[in-house]
Design a protein that fits this description.
three-stranded mixed β-sheet; GMP Synthetase, Chain A, domain 3; single chain; 3 strands; 79 residues; 3 helices; alpha+beta
């Protein structure tokens, strides 16, 4: 379980290009801090999140901006 999860809907920033929906839900910025990321490469962390969001990515989510950290990295990266 993550110690921090922040999900921001940034869809409104993308009105000028494809896959924008006025109700939101197409572009997200997600920050996760989890001990499960310790020892994992950046690509491995992204794969873990994409696997969890597989259905959402098939149906409506167009873009994700991910910041994925282990607890030891949190104080440095979020300062």
């Amino acid at each position: 379980m993550p110690s921090l999860l922040i999900v921001e809907d940034d869809s409104y920033l993308h009105v000028s290009h494809g896959n924008y929906h006025p109700d939101g839900g197409s572009h997200f910025k997600i920050t996760v801090v989890s001990p499960l990321f310790k020892g994992c490469s950046r690509i491995e962390r992204h794969r873990q999140v994409h696997a969890c969001l597989e259905e959402e990515l098939k149906d409506g989510v167009h873009a994700l901006c991910l910041k994925l950290l282990c607890p030891e990295e949190e104080s440095i990266a979020l300062a």
